[in-house]
Write a structure and sequence with these properties.
Layout lengths: L3 H4 L13 E5 L5 E7 L4 E3 L8 E5 H26 L14 H10 L5 E3 L5 H6 L4 H8 L31 H14 L6 E6 L6 H12 L4 E7 L2 E2 L2 E2 H4 L14 E5 L3 H19 L2 E6 L18 H11 L1 H11 L5 H24 L43
Parallel strand pairs: 5-6, 6-7, 7-11, 10-11
Antiparallel strand pairs: 1-2, 2-4, 3-10, 8-9
Helix pairs in contact: 2-3, 2-11, 2-12, 3-9, 5-12, 6-7
Length: 398
């Protein structure tokens, strides 16, 4: 049986494949821009929400497709590396949820921040880390974005704060990032993402209160993929309307399988927060194709038919591809060529992820502190302390 987040969208809710209107033509015969209708948003304590009429340029269409396809291919490689026992520990894939990250990132300004849980590989890539930098981090190599020390669950880069392994713990940190933006007098906002499985954490409701009390510019994003580990949303939550969970905080429900709907929702949300109105809660109804992590086959609590139905009717990449081709923004040949180029980049990065060396033991105590005030670093024996050393710049220590 399909979870509510899947049933509520259903086959009829697929965004229209044909453009509602083509604004202008390029000399080469391509449409320069097209307008599409999205599924209606659901609102909580808002009189007006995002527009359901969303325009996308040819350049944006190519960019969004490239980003989503790269994340999909990257995650496929990550899964294969895990199966080969080259990726150690935990590995949580984002396949199926690409439209959420790409849509949100398209709305962000350079100084806005994002913090998420452990399904973070695609986010790290979107914030500027190369495919090689992501995959070599997964395999613990020195060319990884954290020199192989962070692995799957702890990736960072400018204005991207991870990658956090403790369920729900990133949400208070996200409010702290938003508080810092307000304290500094900027109009920056913070995006704090968490899953439906983390939505019942007490710390989430504590920082709802703090964020609204001080009108902190934080956008809480509940990525509802239908299952918290192996438990469906209906079995874990008395209310599955996650966008209304903030009570006194306004909320929006958005089709998280439609990159354009997500883009429009977050353009609206950022304008709302930067105007001083305080926080928002946004629920993105999405779906993950893999299990909770690579150790979960993902078929003991749902059927293969359910997964296949979502792939066939709601896949964020396939549906977007059909729309931009049918509206004459791109050609199938262009996208096929792009897919080949992406495959080549990921394949090459996968080879590096297997062959690049690991860091040496001398880096065991490197970059623990931005400014080490503690002197020697404690070892397993108090009589044999270790020295601290600095290697790279401190990310986000500004």
């Amino acid at each position: 049986m399909l979870p509510s987040c899947v049933r509520s969208i259903g086959k009829k809710s697929l965004t229209k494949k044909n453009a509602a209107g083509i604004i202008s033509k390029l000399n080469n015969g391509f449409a320069s821009e097209a307008t599409f209708e999205t599924k209606p948003y659901r609102l909580h304590k808002l009189e007006q929400g995002p527009s359901t009429s969303v325009s996308v340029t040819r350049e944006e269409a190519l960019k969004f497709f490239h980003q989503m396809q790269t994340i999909r291919r990257l995650e496929t490689s990550a899964g294969n590396l895990y199966k080969e026992k080259i990726v150690k520990g935990f590995c949580h894939l984002y396949s199926g949820q690409e439209a959420v990250a790409v849509g949100i990132k398209s709305a962000l300004r350079p100084y806005d921040s994002v913090i998420t849980a452990y399904r973070d590989h695609g986010w790290c890539y979107l914030f500027g880390v190369s495919v090689e930098g992501v995959l070599t981090e997964l395999t613990g190599r020195r060319t990884g974005c954290a020199r192989g020390k962070g692995g799957s669950m702890h990736m960072y880069t400018d204005n991207f704060y991870g990658g956090n392994g403790i369920v729900g713990a990133q949400v208070p940190l996200g409010v702290g990032l938003a508080f810092a933006a307000k304290y500094k007098g900027t109009d920056g906002v913070s995006i704090a993402l968490y899953g439906d499985g983390a939505s019942n954490q007490g710390q989430v409701f504590e920082v709802y209160n703090m964020a609204k009390l001080w009108n902190i510019p934080c956008i809480f994003v509940a990525e509802n993929n239908g299952y918290g580990m192996g438990t469906s949303a209906e079995r874990s939550s008395a209310s599955t309307d996650y966008y209304s969970r903030g009570d006194y905080i306004p909320g929006i429900w958005v089709d998280g399988m439609d990159v354009l709907a997500v883009k429009e929702a977050f353009n609206f949300a950022i304008n709302y927060c930067k105007s001083g109105k305080g926080p928002l809660v946004i629920e993105t109804a999405t779906y993950r194709y893999s299990g909770h992590s690579m150790s979960d086959p993902g078929t003991s609590y749902r059927t293969r038919e359910e997964i296949q139905e979502v792939r066939q009717t709601r896949d964020p990449i396939t549906s977007f591809k059909e729309k931009i081709i049918s509206s004459n923004l791109v050609t199938p040949e262009e996208l096929k060529k792009m897919e080949g180029e992406i495959r080549a980049v990921v394949d090459e990065a996968t080879k590096k992820a297997k062959t690049e060396p690991e860091i040496g033991m001398d880096e065991l105590t490197a970059d623990i502190y931005v400014n080490n005030l503690e002197g020697d670093i404690r070892n397993i024996s108090p009589f044999n302390p270790l020295k601290h050393k600095r290697i790279g710049p401190a990310v986000n220590a500004k």
